[in-house]
Design goal:
With 449 residues, this protein is of the alpha+beta class. It folds into three domains: 114 residues; 133 residues, Beta Polymerase, domain 2 (2-Layer Sandwich), CATH 3.30.460.90; 130 residues, Immunoglobulin-like (Sandwich), CATH 2.60.40. The protein is built from 15 helices and 16 strands. The longest helix is centred in the first third of the chain and has 22 residues.
Length: 449
């Protein structure tokens, strides 16, 4: 299976402090960057809510038109990337199959185009102002004016698990559509690979979207990833090697889509080989730059030792309270926005040495102290801050104090107490126009009292 992180050993710090993981930059470094990229490809909570609201409202309208019962969701089926759970950010069309009753199928058996027009007319009664509704081919497309999710609607009558769908092309006819088998194929592969299938699909879809000249359809990417993984040995394989090997394998597939995109595929092969070579030589910075050429700077992160260290610690001691900024807002790091976090002891009984002295000397901060974190932001006007505190170690786990929630900031200051022995961190996020444009981690090693 893909290695998310495997602990290769520990370095016991001085004064019997909590052991810190020994980071193996050769084998585990780049996985952290791919996991971060996958986080950035996920829809935010608002984007998910937008999709649900739109396809639910469309489904309700059609249910009320074709059924006399109350709507409970059973007459809709999400298909496409949303139904297969392979969708990525930014939002795409939501493919929705609406299950028509048998009486409607019989009524329009000889005139499938008339059914699409009827559906279009029903939707026009509600979406009458800025939305555009088109009916052609096999679908009805509802284009919303907000620039996020559109809904691509496909009516179908189910017979023994296979749908009969209207096709208005070439005079009009009904044709079979075995969408459940397509969806199950991806589900089976994803189960067999322990979740790798859907992640690889999302990664390759990002390459396709970023490389604007790629013309391979989304469903074809899904099929190719499933086929590749059915032939590939996943034991002890890193994400960087897996993706490189996929591009190499893809170039040898005898397929018209592959042939038509051979130039783009060969470019990805060259860059991914360079990236893995840089990674092998320990040059993470250049490796990240090569991957950014494939996936884009906004999606693939730049070099960050804190990102890797946090990845290792989070993997070794996960918590169900963990929140990720990528689930809340899109992350588009702006290099012109700078964030700096300083920390100082506050309270009646503070150590003789300032906080920075402990960090510079790599000495643990004493317990039972109060720390004030101050954020300094430059390069952006009109922003909000969010903060995250993440604790690690046995003491925090026993006290159920691992934390990991992301909370809104009140000004530029955050005050926390040093309660648990171990390595912990505070992370600050700069949010401008509902986008995370900068972030920074401040490490806090805590020792005994």
């Amino acid at each position: 299976m893909i290695i998310s992180i495997v602990s290769s050993g520990y370095v016991i710090s001085r004064n019997n402090q909590t052991p810190e993981p020994m980071l193996d930059w050769r084998f585990y470094n780049m996985d952290a960057y791919f996991v971060e990229m996958l986080n950035r490809l996920k829809l935010t909570v608002k984007q998910k809510e937008d999709a649900v609201t739109k396809y639910t409202n469309v489904s309700k309208l059609l249910h009320n038109e074709f059924y006399e019962t109350d709507y409970n969701g059973s007459t809709k089926l999400l298909i496409g990337s949303y139904g297969k759970h392979t969708n990525i950010r930014p939002p795409e069309d939501v493919d929705l199959l609406f299950k028509i009753p048998e009486s409607i199928y019989v009524q329009y058996e000889d005139s499938p185009g008339a059914l699409l027009q009827r559906i279009r007319n029903v939707l026009n009664k509600t979406y009458t102002t800025t939305e555009e509704i088109h009916a052609w081919g096999k679908v009805v497309l509802i284009q919303f004016s907000d620039g996020t999710h559109n809904v691509e609607l496909l009516p179908g009558f189910e017979i023994d698990g296979v749908f009969m769908i209207p096709n208005t092309e070439d005079g009009g006819a009904w044709e079979s559509f075995d969408v459940r088998t397509e969806m199950q194929t991806i589900q089976d592969s994803n189960t067999l690979t322990n979740g790798v299938t859907r992640k690889l699909i999302r990664i390759i879809k990002r390459w396709s979207k970023y490389t604007k000249t790629v013309t391979i359809k989304s469903y074809r990417i899904e099929e190719l990833c499933v086929l590749f993984l059915s032939e590939y040995n996943l034991n002890d394989i890193l994400w960087s090697v897996l993706v490189k090997d996929f591009f190499g394998w893809l170039s040898g597939v005898d397929n018209e889509d592959v042939t038509d995109n051979s130039t783009q595929i060969n470019t990805a092969i060259t860059r991914s080989i360079k990236a893995v070579e840089f990674e092998t030589d320990g040059n993470t910075d250049e490796a990240c730059k090569e991957w950014q050429k494939i996936f884009g700077k906004r999606t693939f992160p730049a070099t960050s030792a804190s990102l890797v260290k946090a990845f290792v610690l989070n993997s070794q001691q996960p918590t169900d309270k963990e929140m990720f900024i990528e689930d809340i807002v899109p992350v588009r790091i702006n290099p012109l926005v700078n964030i700096d976090i300083s920390a100082q002891f506050v309270g009646p009984k503070i150590p003789v040495h300032p906080f920075a002295t402990f960090i510079r000397g790599r000495s643990p901060v004493p317990k039972r102290q109060s720390i004030r974190f101050n954020a300094q932001i430059t390069g952006v006007d009109g922003y909000d801050l969010k903060w995250k505190v993440r604790n690690f170690g046995d003491e925090a786990a026993i006290a159920k104090g691992l934390r990991g929630e992301i909370k809104n900031g009140t000004g530029l200051v955050l005050e926390e107490n040093t309660l648990y022995e171990g390595t912990h961190y505070v992370e600050c996020y700069v949010i401008s126009s509902d986008v995370c444009v900068a972030r920074m981690i401040h490490w806090v090693p805590i020792g005994r009292e």
